[in-house]
Amino acid sequence: MWNKNFLLLWQGLLISQIGSQLFNFALLYWILETTGSATLMGLVLMSAALPGVIFGPFAGTLADNISR
Question: What pTM did the predictor assign?
């Protein structure tokens, strides 16, 4: 666990996830400020999350059933 490459991988992943979440937050804020519509902001957020909710369980099942 204290391998240098392992720590570098996790640090890079953490920075990447923080950047992705900040981008998503900024995009939603921009949509709200540009349109003034909380409904449109909610629809964009829902359309971004919906594919993961729908296809996530199927992808997990498929990944578990395929051998390495």
Answer: 0.69
Sequence-distant (≥ 6) Cβ neighbours of residue 41 within 8 angstroms: 28, 31, 32, 35
Instruction: With beta carbons less than 8 A apart as the criterion, state whether 41 and 32 touch.
Output: yes
Domain of residue 50 covers: 4-65
Structurally, how many domains does the chain consist of? Answer: 1
Residues whose CB is less than 8 angstroms from the CB of residue 27 and which lie 6 or more positions away in sequence, other chains included: 44
Q: What is the pLDDT of residues 25-42, one digit of tens each?
A: 999 999 999 999 999 999
Terminal C-alpha separation, the chain: 23
